[in-house]
Amino acid sequence: MASAVSAIFILDLKGKVLISRNYRGDIPMSAVEKFLPLVLEAEEDSQAPAPCFTDDGINYLYIRHNNLFLLAITRKNSNATTVMLFLHTIAEVLTEYFKELEEESIRDNFVIIYELLDEMMDFGYPQTTESKILQEYITQDAYKLEVQVRPPMAVTNAVSWRSEGIRYRKNEVFLDVVESVNLLVNANGNVLRSEILGAVKMKVFLSGMPELRLGLNDKVMFESTGRSPTKGKSIEMEDVKFHQCVRLSKFENDRTISFIPPDGEFDLMTYRLNTQVKPLIWVEALVENYTGSRVEYLIRAKAQFKRRSSANNVEIHIPVPEDADTPKFRSGIGSVQYVPEKACVIWKIKQFQGGKEFSMRAHFGLPSVKNLEDADKRPPMSIKFEIPYFTTSGIQVRYLKIQERSGYAALPWVRYITQNGDYQMRMPDSIKASKMAPI
Amino acid sequence: MADFIKQNAHRFFANNKKGENAELLADLNSEYRDRRKDAVKRVIANMTVGKDVSSLFPQVVKNMQTEDLEMKKLVYLYLMNYAKSNPDLVILAVNTFVKDTDHVNPLIRALAIRTMGCIRVDKILDHLCEPLRKCLQDDNPYVRKTAAICVAKLWDLDQERALENGFVTTLQDLVSDSNPMVVSNAVTALAEMQESSATKDVFVVNVAFMNKMLAALNECTEWGQIAILTSLAEYKPLDSKEAENICERVIPRLQHANGSVVLSAIRVIMMFMRHIKSDDFVKGLVKKMSPPLVSLLASAPEVQYVSLRNINLILQKRPDILQNDVRVFFCKYNDPPYVKREKLEIMIKLCNEKNIEQILSELKEYASEVDVDFVRKAVHAIGRCAIMIDEASERCVNVLLDLINTKVNYVVQEAIIVIKDIFRKYPKRYEAIIPTLCQNLDSLDEPEAKGSLIWIIGEYAERIENADELIENFLETFLEENSQVQLQLLTATVKLFLKKPSQSQEIVHRVLQTATQEIDNPDTRDRAYVYWRLLSTDPQAAKAVVLSEKPPISVETSTISPGLMDELINNISTLASVYHKPPKAFMGNRAFSADAVKKAAAADARDEEQNMGDAALESPTATGGAAAAKNPIADLLDLDFGSSEPALTSPPVSSSSQKPSGPNYSADLFDFSSDVPSSSGNGAMGVMGSMSGFGITMAPTTSSTAAPAPAGNNDPFGDLGGFGQPAQQQQQQQKPATSQSSATNDLLGLF
Question: Where is the region Disordered (chain B) (predicted)?
Answer without folding.
Answer: 603-627, 642-670, 701-751
